[in-house]
Amino acid sequence: MTDQYDVVVVGGGPAGYPTAIRAAQLGFKTACIDAWINKDNTPAFGGTCLNAGCIPSKALLESSELWHRMQHEIGAHGISGSDFKVDLDKMQARKTAVSRQLTGGIKQLFAANKVTGLEGFGKLLGDGKVEFTPHSGDKQVLTAKHIVIATGSSPVNLKITPFDDETIVDSWGALDFTEVPKTLGIIGAGVIGVELGSVWSRLGSKTVILEAMPSFLPMVDAAISKEALRHFTKQGLDIRLGAKVAGAKVKGGKGGKTVEVEYEMGGETKKETFDKLIVAVGRRPNTDGLNAKEIGVAFDERGFVKVDANYKTNVPGVYAVGDVIGGAMLAHKAIEEGVALAEQLHGEHTQVNYDAVPSVIYTMPEVAWTGLSEEQAKAKGFDVKVGTAPFAANGRAKAMEQPVGTIKIIADKKTDRVLGVHMVGPYVSELLAEAVLGLEFAATVEDYALTMHGHPSLAETFHEAVLSVDGRAIHAVNKVKKS
């Protein structure tokens, strides 16, 4: 059996399903194939993000943060109690329910936009053909003028610390613990490692994060990452920088397994034993079984699909978007690429601005940034001017009992244009959109300074940071003299 489509998308995660929806909105007959199977053997669209990453991790972060605030903050509000406890089973059930609501919503969106959703495996055959193998049923061949690879990525499995899905786990396994580990080791102090560390540390795990790099969050402005490290350490995360893991051994039997990790730090070989070990050292593109190489699709040395500025591969009619092409492995970046591609297939001139990609770490305080750090701006040759403002001076943050963190603005002295915004503080993920929009419009410090911000709001700290660039801050200490 052969079915004819205008567009066939292989992959139903944040890159794939928006591509399919937008293509269908533009009049293309569209199918979206996705192979995801949850641990209860139920298929689902949404990829890692909705099923095993962004959404479930944020659900657990929210739950664990409430528990932390109950223990450490509510007393300051005049609220007390003694019968608080954590029901991890209920917490996990809520997490799963949130994910399932959203993944089910994709099917509804497909139906509303007349996208054919196909649960199973897609294999490129060449000549505009894709073989579809359902999870149960007979294979069929789809033909399409445009075939989009949007198969996403998976956690890197280190040979020195191979996953056993019980004691040594990946980021998905780390979201499904049925008990709070007494001791928890995490390899990698990036976004995933710090978020997962926050969840389980708040719930009671003695958590050690081993990071091979000598610096913490090197992609973030140095002043902001330094402050974030101080807050996380104060909360109980034991983050060890320059710790290069040599290997891990699982010891013990049923009901008593632990993992011994050997690492080098400061010129010394050290060992540490944990109840659980999370490996969070990055992600690799999902291309196994896709048959892309076999039909001639070019890959780079790291295994990512090569594309041009319009997401075309070297094979006519075959495109790729999202994690599988590399760059920032972020769901929102993948969404924008998918939408841009669909519109380009329709003849529109759209593009993604990779200089204004938002990034967030959903700890508390949160870390968020877009554009250049001060260090990156100077390395690119900009003569920079910077401004900062602390949340300690913000009335809303004080009322929330969360007056911690700083916002930093990096700007070009010559043009006054804002080059980057880096923040650590309460709910800075929600303040980041203002910064991204400013970069999109090439906003200047003056543009932001002349924009009224509501009072009392966390956004006032953003405004104060902007004003401080030119020594004009009203509620923060100015470090720059007005000329």
Automatic annotation (TrEMBL):
Keyword Oxidoreductase appears in the UniProt entry: yes
Alphabetized Pfam families for the sequence: Pyr_redox_2, Pyr_redox_dim
UniProt xrefs under Gene3D superfamilies: 3.30.390.30, FAD/NAD(P)-binding domain
Annotated EC: 1.8.1.4
Keyword Disulfide bond attributed: yes
GO BP: 2-oxoglutarate metabolic process
Sequence ranges assigned to domain Pyridine nucleotide-disulphide oxidoreductase dimerisation in this UniProt record: 357-465
Catalytic activity: N(6)-[(R)-dihydrolipoyl]-L-lysyl-[protein] + NAD(+) = N(6)-[(R)-lipoyl]-L-lysyl-[protein] + NADH + H(+)
Keywords: Cytoplasm, Disulfide bond, FAD, Flavoprotein, NAD, Nucleotide-binding, Oxidoreductase, Redox-active center
Main location: cytoplasm
Cofactor binding note from Swiss-Prot or TrEMBL: Binds 1 FAD per subunit.
Cofactor: FAD
Active site location: 455 (proton acceptor)
Positions bound to FAD: 58, 122, 151-153, 323, 329-332
Disulfide topology: 49-54
Source superkingdom: Bacteria
A GO cellular-component term linked to this record: cytoplasm
Subcellular location: Cytoplasm
Binding site for NAD(+): 188-195, 211, 282
InterPro entries per the UniProt record, alphabetical: Class-I_Pyr_Nuc-Dis_Oxidored (IPR050151), FAD/NAD-bd_sf (IPR036188), FAD/NAD-binding_dom (IPR023753), FAD/NAD-linked_Rdtase_dimer_sf (IPR016156), Lipoamide_DH (IPR006258), Pyr_nuc-diS_OxRdtase (IPR001100), Pyr_nucl-diS_OxRdtase_dimer (IPR004099), Pyr_OxRdtase_I_AS (IPR012999)
Single GO MF descriptor: dihydrolipoyl dehydrogenase (NADH) activity
Further remarks about this protein from its record: The active site is a redox-active disulfide bond.
Family listed: Belongs to the class-I pyridine nucleotide-disulfide oxidoreductase family.
Protein name according to UniProt: Dihydrolipoyl dehydrogenase
Lineage: Bacteria, Pseudomonadati, Pseudomonadota, Gammaproteobacteria, Nevskiales
